Amino acid sequence: MELNRRTLLTLGASAAALAAGRPFAGLAQAEALAWRNWSGLQHCEPEERLAPGDVAELGDILKNAPRPIRPVGAGHSFTPLVPTDGTVLSLDRLQGILTVDEARKEATFGGGTRLGAIGRALEEKGQALINMPDINKQTLAGSISTATHGTGLGFNALSAYVRGLELVTAKGEVLTCSADENAEIFEAARVSLGALGIITKITMENRAPYRLTRRVWSVPFDEMMEQAEELAEQHRNFEFYYIPFSGMCLGITHDETDAEINPRASTDDDDAVMTLKALQEWLGWAPSLREYLIRSEMEKLPDDIYVDTSWRIYPSERGVRFNEMEYHLPRAAGLTALKDVRETIETNNLDVFFPIEFRYVKGDDLWLSPFTGRDSCSIAVHRYYEEDHTPYFKAMEPIFRKHDGRPHWGKLHTLGAADFAALYPRFKDFQEVRAALDPEGVFLNNHLRHVLGVA
Fold first, then answer.
1. Using CA atoms in the order 20, 24, 29, 30, what is the torsion angle rounded to 10 degrees?
2. Which tens digit of pLDDT belongs to each residue from 236-263?
3. How far lies 113's CA from each of 38, 93, 132, 306, 369, in Å?
């Protein structure tokens, strides 16, 4: 099997758009209404699956649909944010660019707009998102609601670039929210887990379109530990992956450029992760031999360098499904925590083959942002979707918690309201805003009741 850098970097799957709406002809109702997230871990059979076409229709749904009502985006969260026996509500019909403010470099989108649909459309309007995550299948509303992020010391999660939003409450009231209007609700709503209402419009701060040079290279783990902080300071975007049982990392940098476009070639990017899976299955009993084979291949790899417009550079296509845990730690603790992760995996010969992702994110002041009050490093661990993730994640979570980590709201964790109250200085403020907007808990499923402390 061929092992190359490009395929090693794509660690997951393209999100299948999970359709919402009335039962399909020819299918039993339960089958038609059944919902699953992208990995298949989370699922439910709601009484209704609905997709309003406008705010008026949404208002009627919120008044009459079976409870609890849970909004769904692309189904790319691994935590049970969506499952309900009431109503799964899709924003797929509320998409696209609605308005553009060229002077302010802002644009307003429908909440159901997919990140992957924003780049080209926004470029045609003379704008671009300031930063992007490495998966672009999510909806914009889902992304900001869970504090989805990219990488780069100078860049926040997407939520911090929201300049206004429209929120439809449980009573069907339409609220326009910004720093100047309904300001307290705005602060809570920028990372809200879908617990305050349905976000139908989002105004984003943008910038002029730009090109990026992307460089990908391999380097021994110990060298990366010495270089990582300097690389993060030197480059616009920097992240790296550690390949378990290899002693090797793959570094990735993005820097702005005026160079001619030189796009990456189109290949099947899923081969390498399945190669790593095969090596784990064949040589799990011989970690030293496994490390020798992977390292010897990675040391031969030349640097990959290519240039393209920003929205083509950021995302990776992911065709191998997985479940994921990601924690955000204080920047000063990130590399130490990663060393602990590697030692735990390899000392105990844990059954792991997915690369481990390490990113940098600028701190913010949002109430439920995992980056509130501190610059952070994010460490993400993945488990093949057909395998039990529990033992691996159970071994990882104490490491992240020891280093004062906060979990990604859309990635698997075991924390509850008492933990979050200790981690988030404005947690009580969020609880109060939520209770005022939705006193009957229309938007609360069992998972949200647990993490927000609602009986």
1. -50
2. 999 999 999 999 999 999 999 999 999 9
3. 18, 9, 14, 28, 21
362 & 333 share domain: yes
Q: Distance (Å, rounded) from C-alpha 31 to C-alpha 159?
A: 35
Task: Note whether 219 and 333 are same-domain residues.
Answer: yes
Domain limit, last residue, from 178, 209, 240: 209
The pLDDT value given to residue 320: 86
Q: Indicate whether 232 and 148 sit together in one domain.
A: no
What tokens were used for 61?
Answer: 């749904």
Percent of the chain residues past pLDDT 70, beyond the cut: 87
Max CA separation in the chain (angstroms): 63
Q: Are residues 83 and 162 in the same domain?
A: no
The answer to whether residue 395 is domain-embedded is: yes
Same domain, 118 and 247: no
Number of separate domains in the chain: 3
> Among the three residues 209, 234, 254, which one is the final residue of a domain in this structure?
209
Residue 46 belongs to what domain range? 29-90
Verify that 175 and 189 share a domain, yes or no: yes
CATH (domain of 59): 3.30.43
CATH of residue 350's domain is 3.40.462.10
**Whether 264 contacts 306, CB under 8 Å:** yes
Instruction: Give the global pTM.
Output: 0.90
Task: Please indicate, yes or no, if residue 419 is contained in any of the structural domains.
Answer: no
Phi-psi region of 105 (alpha: psi -120 to 50; beta: other; left: phi over 0): left
Regions of the chain where pLDDT drops below 70: 1-32, 266-287, 289-290, 292
If we measure between CA atoms, which residue out of 11, 2, 5, 1 comes closest to residue 319?
11
Identify whether residues 76 and 123 lie together within a single domain.
no
Tokens 């871990």 found at: 41
